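Repro case for the chain-ordering regression, as requested:
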Amino acid sequence: MQPIMQSTIQGRIYKFGDNVNSDIIIAGRYLIYIEPKELAQHAFEMLGEGFPDKLRSYDILVAGRNFGCGSAREQASTAIKGLGIKAVVAASFARTFYRNAINDGLAIVECPAVHEAVKEGDDISIDLGLGRITHEGAQYPFPQIPPSVRRILELGGLANYLKSNMASAIGS
Amino acid sequence: MGMTIAEKILAKKSGTAGVAPGQIVDAYPDVVMSHTATWRSVSVMQRIGATKLYDADRLAIVLDHISPAKTEKYAKDQQTSRNFAREHGIKKFYDVDAGIAHLVLMENGHIKPGDLVVGTDSHCTIYGALGALGSGIGYTEVTSVWVTGKLWMKVPTTIKFVLDGKFAPGVSAKDLMLYLIGKLGADGAGYKSVEFYGAAMPRMSISERMTMANLAMEMGSKCAFIPPDAKTAEWLEGRLKDPGRYTPVYADADAVYEQEIKVDLSNLTPMVACPHQVENTKPIAEVVGTKIDQAFLGSCANGKYEDLAAAAGILRGRHIDPGVRLIVTPGSKEIMLQAMKSGVLQTLIESGALVTNPGCGACAGDGGTMADGEVSLSTANRNFIGRMGSNKSSIYLSSPATLAASAIQGKIADPREYF
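-- result from build under test --
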């Protein structure tokens, strides 16, 4: 199977603060859904008027510390994908969100300096291959996802990874 | 170099001689738990075309979040989970009558010291109350563990807590954890393991240890450990299917800790987490008098028998404020039965409580929904905006004792008035 994730992601950013929890990203009452489009209709609804639709004109979310904390609900990353968001850059991620995003094929980047540098509506470019973000001419390096795990992300998520490795991974 | 408990368990479960923080290993969990999310993992299994499980005996399924089904969609999803369990001969299957997955699995002897347990719930850290490594994962990853038997795990660094002294009357394990979460922050233990030691630990009941390991998640921890001792062995006696057939895992004397934090329990006061972050904690004196509309006594953090009994101890012979709805949701069937036999349920009902069936209840949005402007006090582990209903309602978190005192007064109250 060929990688489906692009190695460069570019676009307008929406900026969040610290501790955006997964209950805010998608409320528990919507966990009856698993499809990205259905979930996206209710993403960030708890933040009030204008959400989630105002996020649809952005490409990348930039957040502070501990993005995705709280519940291990995988639908948090699925809902973000459903909004058309291509990547989340955060100062740090909660570990459950970090894993779920990889398993869901949503690009995630840990880069505290970018959160400090950008403002809402700015354009940034993420080079996943080289491990650096470009914003207004400045470059910000970030630690890359471990190679053993990167393959899952490149294939668009864990389900695709399992399918492509069916013979060896599942033994059938 | 010596190893911490998390390092030792991950080394053992990955067949690696020694591991170090930061290392990524392929680990084989002893138990993979899925709760109400089970149908989602089943759908992934169908999507990838897998039909065989790595080992059906490692699966544990408990339908706890919305129980019994409240809409046709939930009914259909539960049917999917039930059918899957039947088709694959899942022995550790518990239906909507059982209670919260974490408590049900421990009470029924499915979690042993030294086990590696993963599941579709962030509060899997609770298994550390028995010395097992518990950690939450998403439903797709659960499917992956179902079929491959393994998952990648990064070896965490570890924070050591040393607890001395005794709780003052009216102060409990919940207050300790709210204090620590406030001190360290919501990501203070992010990606890390935590271990609890000190002269206070042998006195901590298994119920208190469960509260501690459960709440450790709210400081971001990957897993939490209370090293097994005589109390652990006693609690497991008669519960484990094969008593004695487990090997507790302890840290080496020269294990390396990232940080050591000492706490004297006798200095602690009742604590409350204020809206809308668990780390937003305050000593009770700063919030006393805040009017409440609802009080929820339940959850995997504080819906255990000792929690219900602590509240009943204060409510006995008293009645709650007429302006408050007190909702009590026992954590499991076993807890509910014990509370029924001991008279705790009767005390709670006579004091004005509404007692529901066991399960996650209002903590997971199953009943007890809050309207605009309402305030809830809850013994659960999360107070995030909108978690219990309207995004214009607010949630405070406390111990069962603080909850009982507050329900009586109709406003947040100091439980020490009743001791």
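Ordering looks correct now. Residues 10-263 of chain B form a domain with the Aconitase; domain 3 fold (CATH 3.30.499.10).
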